[in-house]
């Protein structure tokens, strides 16, 4: 099984990673400072593209490892440029190799998307993945404790690729983190539009708590509001296979365990799984067995094997990783899309293969000997032979039919000459 070790040099970027949805929240989280000890290598910014415009917006800026907030002139793009998104994805992969920040990037994407309310039609009031999590007012929500670190990691990539929206960047980072940790390929689409200012951020309280009085009811209230069902709730919970909970941020978990004391990244916290940077179905196995006191089990985790409807899927995923991967990929993509506004409206994929070249339709008039075109009689004979082999004007043969005919004629001529001699 894969093992993970901390960066070899002090210059390598590190980050403290935390658990994912549902969020562990407490009064401790409300006192989160918007400074952190996370350091990262700066990436060079690229020139702005002519079709993007500048807008006054309140946003976070990074200075000497500290994130501060001020009204600044910042490039806002109307929608993402596919080629820049592809390049950003490669930079995210490199970031993951040096920071081991898979869990917090998944959480960033989820928390930007997880504010969706299907009962509100108007965008952006309905929430969803719209880039609002970059603003101080939303970063200060108790459920988002520590996500300032994720923003600090992604901000240089955003500045490098001006033709990428925050909404797309957060979702791209989340899906890429899952895939790079060994998880399934997420069928993502892009083209999300950003909100323009902090006044468009959703109100606090739309994300799940980790220890509500009635965990099953609470999970359903939150996720049903987003249009998700029991299967999707359980599948998404499986992303807790990545990450750790830190008591100084959330009030949940141990300060350190034998699995987290040496990192990678900043040491400490309590993980749900032994290999907390590997995406697999071990979360369901470990929650079911509950044999290791060093592994975290929140009330919202335990209920997956207590509630009859949840248990059906949790048992299945503990036994069948392929089934978990399939359902997780679909649920992750759905969560990333609901509530978002896309331009173009249908969005676009970064992984669409170019359509295969179609064989040329049969056009008998194209064939001629030298500069002299075939007679109509000869065209009809060729067409009859072509159709005899299963072709038609609207059903091209996969091989070069005319070349085959020429080969057959040549062979017949050669055989005839041998016979005559």
Write the topology of this structure.
Layout: H1 27-30, E1 53-63, E2 66-76, H2 82-99, H3 102-113, H4 136-139, H5 148-160, H6 166-180, H7 215-225, H8 230-237, E3 244-245, H9 247-250, E4 270-271, H10 282-289, H11 299-302, H12 308-319, H13 321-337, E5 368-369, E6 372-373, H14 376-388, H15 401-420
Antiparallel strand pairs: 1-2, 3-4, 5-6
What does this structure look like?
- Residues 244-267 are annotated as: Disordered.
- InterPro entries: Ccp1-like, Haem_peroxidase, Haem_peroxidase_sf, Peroxidase_I, Peroxidases_heam-ligand_BS.
- Plays a key role in hydrogen peroxide removal.
- Residues 105-352 form the Plant heme peroxidase family profile domain.
- There is one protein chain.
- By secondary structure, this protein is mainly alpha-helical.
- It has 15 helices and 6 strands.
- It has helices spanning 27-30, 82-99, 102-113, 136-139, 148-160, 166-180, 215-225, 230-237, 247-250, 282-289, 299-302, 308-319, 321-337, 376-388, 401-420; strands spanning 53-63, 66-76, 244-245, 270-271, 368-369, 372-373.
- The strands form 3 sheets. Strands 1-2 form a two-stranded antiparallel sheet. Strands 3-4 form a two-stranded antiparallel sheet.
- The longest helix has 20 residues, at 401-420.
- It starts with 26 loop residues before the first helix and ends with a helix.
């Amino acid at each position: 099984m894969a093992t993970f070790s901390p960066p070899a040099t002090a210059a390598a970027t590190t980050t403290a990673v935390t658990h994912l949805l549902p969020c562990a929240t407490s009064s401790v989280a409300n006192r989160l400072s918007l400074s952190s000890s996370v350091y990262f290598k700066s990436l060079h910014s690229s020139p702005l593209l002519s079709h993007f415009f500048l807008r006054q917006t309140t946003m976070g800026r990074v200075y000497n490892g500290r994130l501060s907030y001020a009204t600044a002139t910042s490039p806002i793009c109307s929608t993402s440029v596919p080629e820049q998104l592809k390049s950003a994805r490669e930079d995210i992969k490199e970031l993951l190799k040096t920071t081991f920040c898979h869990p917090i990037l998944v959480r960033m994407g989820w928390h930007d998307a997880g504010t969706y309310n299907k009962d509100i039609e108007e965008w952006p009031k309905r929430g969803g993945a719209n880039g609002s999590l970059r603003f101080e007012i939303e970063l200060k929500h108790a459920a988002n404790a520590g996500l300032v670190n994720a923003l600090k990691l992604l901000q240089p990539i955003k500045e490098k690729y001006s033709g990428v929206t925050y909404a797309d960047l957060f979702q791209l980072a989340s899906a890429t983190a899952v895939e790079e940790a060994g998880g399934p390929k997420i069928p993502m689409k892009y083209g999300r539009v950003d909100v323009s200012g902090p006044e468009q951020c959703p109100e606090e309280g739309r994300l799940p708590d980790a220890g509500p009085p009635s965990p099953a009811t609470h999970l359903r209230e939150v996720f049903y509001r987003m249009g998700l069902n029991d299967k999707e709730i359980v599948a998404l919970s499986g992303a807790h296979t990545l990450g750790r909970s830190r008591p100084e941020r959330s009030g949940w978990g141990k300060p350190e365990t034998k699995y987290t004391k040496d990192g990678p990244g900043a040491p400490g916290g309590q993980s749900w799984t032994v290999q907390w940077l590997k995406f697999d179905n071990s979360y369901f196995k470990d929650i079911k067995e509950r044999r290791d006191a060093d592994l975290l089990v929140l009330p919202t985790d335990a209920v997956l094997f207590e509630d009859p409807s949840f248990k059906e899927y949790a048992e299945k995923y503990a036994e069948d990783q392929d089934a978990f991967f399939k359902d997780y990929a679909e649920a992750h993509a759905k969560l990333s899309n609901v509530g978002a506004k896309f331009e173009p409206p249908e969005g676009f994929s970064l992984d669409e293969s170019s359509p295969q070249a179609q064989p040329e339709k049969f056009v008998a008039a194209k064939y001629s000997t030298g500069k002299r075109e075939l007679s109509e009689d000869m065209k009809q004979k060729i067409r009859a032979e072509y159709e005899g082999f299963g072709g038609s004007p609207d059903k091209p043969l996969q091989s070069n039919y005319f070349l085959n005919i020429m080969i057959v004629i040549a062979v017949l001529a050669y055989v005839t000459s041998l016979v005559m001699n």
